[in-house]
Design brief:
Radius of gyration: 23 Å
Helix content: 40-55%
Oligomer: single chain
Order of helices and strands: HHHHEHEHEHEEHEHEHEHEEHEE
Distance between the termini: 32 Å
Number of strands: 12
Structural class: alpha/beta
Number of helices: 12
Strand content: 15-25%
Shape: elongated
């Protein structure tokens, strides 16, 4: 018996995603699909003799043409506000492109489960993006068991839940590798939050892997945990400077904490990077304007939002399997805070990465 032609076959023939095929066949004008693309899809449909599945068409039309974003609001720190706004902008660009609405809500730890379960089960949205939530596992699993489309950002990854995040582990490894190349062996870690946040745990793992690769044992005494604020970065750095064996380099898992670390070093008249080098993470808009300019690991929250929006639409339409986990690459930006000789401000060529296999990100 011949295999039935699917929308995936049409998408492959036309060189587009299944989401685009669905919008073309269902006449969703708000999606902004060009006439050339529309004709290419229709030609592929005719060539392959594709007959749209009625259930797939109903799903494509959706009940509300609305997707939701829920994020945690108990973190009034600048980096949370900035990253959330960038994620919203990325999601909105996808919503505008495909003619769907974006519903945004914020929650506290106490009401998080009630909010997102209510959104899903009252049919107000067709799918949901959750960002950095301390979620109730039972409630989340209930929605997954309902086969409700969910994408998790920078949070706990369950087997059946789609997620997308930055390659935090590799970014941290690259930062440590850079500091090792500058001759440092006593490298402290300033984490921006407790280990209950998955991004912190992954960056710690990359830090430990970088040290292990160089044969340097992990020293818990060189690790400090902050609370997302510059003040906690200042306090953590002061604590390290008052210890018996001061580090020669700091890897800080958030630029906002790194700003506090730089202030603490300046207050103690510590020369940066001659006495202590500093590397951050995020590439905050102000990172290039600190004194000295901050070396950092660049990530894009706007791109994270775009990819999450597209992943959610593909999940709603059955174009991606439940449990798919995507990773966005990081970029290492070398500035003056980590390099003693300004003539060496180029990133080292042939950066190594071993022992940490990751799934490639599906590009849409």
């Amino acid at each position: 018996m011949a295999r039935r032609t699917t929308s995936r076959d049409v998408a492959a023939r036309a060189g587009v995603s299944r989401t685009t095929v669905s919008f073309v066949l269902n006449g969703v004008k708000q999606a902004g699909i060009s006439e050339e693309t529309r004709q290419r899809v229709l030609a592929a449909v005719e060539e392959l003799g594709y007959v749209p599945d009625a259930a797939a068409q109903a799903l494509a039309r959706g009940r509300t043409h609305t997707i939701g974003l829920v994020f945690h609001r108990t973190q009034p720190h600048p980096t949370a506000v900035s990253s959330t706004m960038q994620i919203i902008e990325g999601l909105m660009s996808i919503a505008r492109q495909f003619g769907v609405r974006l519903l945004i809500d914020s929650v506290t730890h106490a009401d998080s489960a009630d909010v997102y379960v209510d959104l899903a089960r009252t049919k107000r949205i067709d799918g949901l993006v959750l960002f950095d939530l301390q979620v109730d596992d039972r409630a989340l699993h209930d929605l997954v068991n309902d086969d409700f489309p969910i994408v998790i950002l920078t949070g706990p990854r369950e087997v059946r839940i789609c997620s997308i995040d930055f390659d935090n582990r590799r970014g941290a490894y690259t930062a440590v590798e850079h500091l090792l190349a500058q001759g440092h062996s006593r490298i402290a870690l300033l984490a921006h939050a407790p280990l209950t946040f998955s991004g912190v745990a992954e960056r710690l793992a990359g830090y430990m892997e970088g040290l292990a690769t160089a044969g340097i044992p992990f020293d818990e005494a060189l690790v400090r945990y902050g609370d997302f604020s510059s003040e906690s970065g200042f306090a953590a750095t002061t604590s390290l400077l008052e210890g018996p064996d001061v580090p020669t380099a700091l890897f800080v898992t958030s630029d906002v904490l790194a700003f506090g670390a730089l202030a603490a070093l300046h207050e103690r008249n510590v020369a940066i990077p001659d006495d202590i080098a500093v590397v951050g993470f995020d590439d905050h808009p102000l990172a290039a304007f600190t004194t000295p300019a901050l070396t950092t690991v660049r990530i894009s929250f706007e791109d994270l939002g775009r990819q999450a929006g597209k992943m959610l639409l593909d999940l709603i339409l059955g174009d991606v399997e439940a449990g798919y986990q995507g990773l966005l690459e990081t970029e290492f930006i070398v500035r003056a805070s980590s390099v003693r000789d300004c003539r060496r401000l180029a990133a080292p060529a042939g950066a190594r990465w071993s022992g940490l296999p990751t799934k490639p990100l599906q590009r849409w």
